[in-house]
Design brief:
homodimer; mainly alpha; elongated; DNA-binding; transcription regulation (chains A, B); MerR_fam (chains A, B); repressor (chains A, B); DNA binding (chains A, B)
DNA sequence: TTATTACTTAGAGCGTACTCTAAGTCAAGA
DNA sequence: TCTTGACTTAGAGTACGCTCTAAGTAATAA
């Protein structure tokens, strides 16, 4: 993670690092843990806006826990769908690669265009 | 897929639709099949630049087949890595959701911060 | 014949998530 | 004391993938 990204996240209100007596930033273990968690959220495909929403809810305290949970569950559902979509698209890619193998082997192979029709 | 996107792909050289006598576009079954395949490529996470590269190779004929196959294999590898990454990030999300369940149940639960340390 | 409608083009604009620049401050080493 | 270097800020710029606008043309309906 670049310092640029760190500043950007800070500007967006996702992180609030500590400051020393000279007003310079330092990151506590908690700060770093929190940033790590943000990266996990990002990694699931959560957008900046969703993360901001989550951070706002968090700032409002314990009575937003169920909302936060719902938000994360939504993200979880979306993420799983995206994974499944990618897997489906990968299957076509796999088939195309196999088809290239066939072409390279000069063996008989179903026309790829015909195969593709199965996905329409 | 919006007509805007279709024009965009055309400008980028990914598709070359047919034209009628009045110079208006029409898409043959092959065109549509090709667009469908492009969407599968996109769906695996392939970037416009990678797709353009692929299209260029394709335009050069059969002696680029092994290069095209290698390109797709690279995309396949990247896509699988991304899926696995997402799964890992999802595990953390799942745990956080479970932790919220715990909080909501007022039952004892490991501090999430402690759990997160396991990923550092 | 005129008006409407559906297309055409080039090019500008947008949303997202960064990434970088420029100008300034300030503590520490030579 | 000077200078170096590491930080600070606000704001501009970039890459990607679209998305939209404006101005023009041309076939069809009234």
């Amino acid at each position: 993670m670049s310092p640029y990204t760190l500043r950007y996240y800070e500007r967006e209100g996702l992180i609030i690092p500590q400051r020393d007596k000279n007003d310079r930033r330092y990151y506590t273990k908690q700060d770093i843990g929190w940033i790590g968690f943000l990266l996990h959220l990002k990694g699931t495909g959560m957008s900046m806006n969703e993360i901001k929403k989550y951070v706002e809810l968090r700032a409002q305290g314990d009575n937003t826990i169920s909302q936060r949970k719902e938000l994360l569950q939504q993200v979880q559902t979306n993420s799983l769908s995206r994974i499944n979509e990618m897997k489906m698209h990968l299957e076509v890619l796999n088939h195309k690669i196999d088809w290239y193998e066939g072409k390279l082997d000069h063996s008989i192979s179903e026309e790829f265009a015909d195969y593709l029709k199965r996905f329409e």
